[in-house]
Amino acid sequence: MSRGRNEELTTTSYAILGLLALRPWTTYELAKQMERTLNRMWPRARSKLYEEPKKLQAHGLATASRQHVGRRPRTVYAITAKGRRALTKWLQTPGQGPSLEFEQLIQLFFADQGTKQDAARTIRAAAEWARAQSADFADGARPYLTGQGPFPERMATNVIGARFTVDFYDLVHRWSQWAAEVVERWPDDPSAAEPDWALVADIVRRADAVADASHGDSGDVTRSGR
Amino acid sequence: MSRGRNEELTTTSYAILGLLALRPWTTYELAKQMERTLNRMWPRARSKLYEEPKKLQAHGLATASRQHVGRRPRTVYAITAKGRRALTKWLQTPGQGPSLEFEQLIQLFFADQGTKQDAARTIRAAAEWARAQSADFADGARPYLTGQGPFPERMATNVIGARFTVDFYDLVHRWSQWAAEVVERWPDDPSAAEPDWALVADIVRRADAVADASHGDSGDVTRSGR
DNA sequence: TTCTTCATGTAATTAGTTACATGATTGA
DNA sequence: TCAATCATGTAACTAATTACATGAAGAA
Lengths: 226, 226
Hints:
Two copies of one chain form a homodimer. Chain A is mostly helical. Chain A has ten helices and four strands, in the order ααβααββαβααααα. Chain A has helices spanning 3-6, 11-22, 27-36, 46-58, 81-92, 103-109, 116-141, 155-184, 197-212, 219-223, and strands spanning 25-26, 62-69, 72-79, 99-101. A three-stranded antiparallel beta sheet of chain A has the order 1-3-2. The N and C termini of chain A lie far apart (57 Å).
């Protein structure tokens, strides 16, 4: 009943395991690669990424080989056959849908307790966030356009996540532009702003549209505009 | 140097404080209201919502009045003047941009380690998630269309978050339909799928478009289509 | 040779979750 | 009067974060 074996694997564990399926990495490389790629959809602190591989090893899913750089030790991890089996099995299990944390939006939810300027500033910050993230993402992806960038053979798989990422930044950006216009029209005291009920109706209608979309009916989405 | 005063307030604290600014609530009501509304953008376990008000009280931002229902005690919390000041001050501080956790997308990132069916199933699950969330959201919002639903006077503020929410569900839904089509065209072995470099170029272009959008230039967004 | 950045970790702390427990209320 | 659901919490646990520490390599 060793300690390590009892600790359950988390999504973070499988994310690391997935990277190990591509090639062996040192812990530092692993953490760096994680930050470059998966971080956008699975953000974790660096120190966590140093711990997880140990757990994989304890489960027999990875091997650790201790090496040295001068007097400093370092560890290279590699996936085992058992690790590959565990990974493919995980790919068959139902994963969690998206989970969003958005502090700025909580602030906007209580915008009527503050000033119009507060709201406007928060919206600008969200727009700037989208801009900065997009720029960063584009910088990371651009090398692939000239045949550079790591793991080009994995691009067929990667585009699925990449498109979601850009869709999301685009969404935040468009939404913030819209929100800025709305707030612009508010009176100085946000709590005195009049609700636009037509807008509410439109929002409900759009939610219904998604809710009523028949399962796996992919053609419809291109037929009907926004 | 009492314990409570030293604990820093978190976004969760301010979310609760914001609700208290609307009216006094029992802890149960508070937790319920949180689940109905803020949960989509700030998901927290129920038990957490029972703890937070105590912290607010320790900071002097809320008062707690112990009441009784039969033999059971219950607590009603109300905001103080100091609490209102703390809230408006928080609204002036820069908040965090969106943070996304999306396990299914991590699975898709490693789709080349599994089967085409695994990927298709994961995408269907994401679509179903969007459908279910949209339905739930629409159910919560619909009463407002007939003049019902709590805090109608706050709707001018609320639509900002509501629209973001629907935008997001819509995005997940559309993306999943697109992804389903893409995976459909894959060969049986996902790792043998050929990258579509035109698609990659398009994604980078879209990221650049967001990154290059000039600050606060809201008109442009309506002029240029997707 | 010194400064900075890259590389490699551990330790202390905490925010948050899961599990547990039980009284009150309502409807069949 | 029984079962189900609503209401009200506490306790135990853990995943993750922040802070700390330091060697190696490259630049100035």
